[in-house]
Amino acid sequence: MNTLTITTCPLCGGNHLERTLTCVDHYATGEVFHLCRCQDCGFLFTQDFPTEAEIGRYYETPDYISHSDTKKGAMNRIYHWVRHYMLKRKAKLVMRVTHRKDGRLLDIGTGTGYFADTMKRLGWQVEAVEKNASAREFAKAHFGLEVQPETALKDYTSGSFDVITLWHVLEHLEHLDETWETLNTLLTDKGMLLVAVPNCSSYDARKYGAYWAAYDVPRHLWHFTPSTIQQFASKHGFIMSERHPMPFDAFYVSMLSERYMNRSLPFLRGMLTGTVAWFSSLVHKERSSSMIYVFRKKSL
Question: What are the beta bridge partners of residue 244?
């Protein structure tokens, strides 16, 4: 298997890297992967992860909900309920931060197409890209969406979009710096970028350590905190204008984490931790299990 070994921090360029955690791919293969942290800036990432050409098999499970839309099991049914609620919140957020009710939107990593379909129904001109062929087929069959493979990103012209969204996608993308540059290029000068990612400085991440389900090695390559993602944005010409907690994520992630630890009553234990995490994020939103960040381009 071809893997990528990182010797220079993608964020600050430092080479003082230390191994901090050893995590297991509980979801698909049972393989072991290591997380490294940059001692200079604190950025955390998965080390020796499979290259883009190799990583596909780590998604090849009928239980991978972003691609299969499975409703098997209580946790996945909860996921669907929360997604229905969050689709409305995300749509309202897009319209509020852009001060518009329609426009040109690009959803990167659209999965099975639920958000893209929501925005299209609201009158937006929507383009969507997704790497997984099965997920693209689902979006076509259920929503009539013509979702493009990720290679289509290079075909869009500069300034094509008023909004670009990545909902739990950025952590999966191997070419991190190139992605940020592409986002800047494709947005209009007054365009808005909305990114949702797990927060590895959250209450539940600290509680579960190496068992925290949102590390999700090796599918998640990069592990952001509010500080490190803001630094990445600044590095590539963006300014953070807002950030919002996603407290529901703590429930789902905690349930999975409890199951990975083989603890009894993982559903109930996860609900308890999720509740504590919820209240923690009410006081300190930077401790939320996942965060939505809203960025605008820096003025020239």
Answer: 292
